């Protein structure tokens, strides 16, 4: 409680954060703003408000996009404040079925294998089509999860070490993430390919696990701490010059670990390549296409690394890049938010889809798997044929053809 009060009291109620907050701009409700939520926490902790359910509803509507943190002149540690507040009520909160499934699959390797074979069966036997047409999963509250599922691809076994194929500059650790290892093998292999081709050995410790973001943001601090401990032990090798992430949602969580020697090494892959002065222009085949660049809020507001993807993509000759307008703060995916607050998630997604629709882009690139799945589902529902992929995949494809 003391930490909550101290963090909340940093807020000077200036209101500069309000116009940047997606839930406030969509509702115009002070209780759905950063300042309003801080005031609610203050009122609750002081005893002025006693209805914890009503307060929690407003706190839980927060996306944790951290746009308010980025603009706050008083540097309120807003994300920490919300996580700490939610953790006070963790024991009495019943997670939705979707969140329970997601957490199970996130860090249980047996559950991951089961999920992989179930997904294969579900998609290759036509069960998915039948379930979707009859809306069967909606009855179980899993319909929102089903719409996010990408087309099944066979999982590939990863080695623990990959050697640089160009003059060696050092070794990096690659954090693959639980959802990435389950649903997005192309991004993992693209990262290995680009890193080794640019002179980096890649270490992928097998004992790494989920980053813990789902747990922390749903109030389960104890599990988040356990996962942090496993990951820091997995990447203890002191010769690692960086711990590279391919999902900014994971990267932002890893950077917040209470293990400075680990957290300081964590970097988004595009940012890492740019800071290492990697220049691939001569090795990349031209691509006379247009790409729409989505910047996840975790990349911009938490990792503060939004320039990397743009600079990296600019190395592809002839590629035309359109950034989504700055007025778009969060696409609404926000970890499990898109499953548990689907109405607001859809409203925010519509802004992204409208902006993407107004471009001639063939691709939409995003550095976070959660955003990519959410946006891909929205594009499909609108019948738009834009391919959603990680920037490193586009780089690897052009490298492959060079
Ligand atoms: S910008 Fe910061 S100090 Fe100002 S109201 Fe928002 S959270 Fe409080
Ligand atoms: S984290 Fe995002 S949604 Fe939550 S209060 Fe801040 S700006 Fe609003």
Notable traits:
402 residues; alpha/beta; Fumarate Reductase Iron-sulfur Protein, Chain B, domain 2; Rossmann fold; 4 domains; five-stranded mixed β-sheet; 24 helices; 9 strands; globular; binds iron/sulfur cluster
Under CATH, the topology of the largest domain is which?
Answer: Rossmann fold
Q: Tell me how many strands there are.
A: 9
Main sheet characteristics: 5 strands, mixed
CATH architecture of the largest domain: 3-Layer(aba) Sandwich
Mean pLDDT: 91
What is the helix content?
40-55%
Task: Please report which band the strand proportion falls in: under 5%, 5-15%, 15-25%, 25-35%, 35-45% or over 45%.
Answer: 5-15%
Show unreliable segments.
none
How do the strands of the widest beta sheet line up side by side? 1-3-2-4-5
Q: Specify the CATH class of the largest domain.
A: Alpha Beta
The total of helices stands at 24
Rough shape? globular
List the ligand species.
Answer: iron/sulfur cluster
**Which structural class is indicated by helix and strand composition?**
alpha/beta
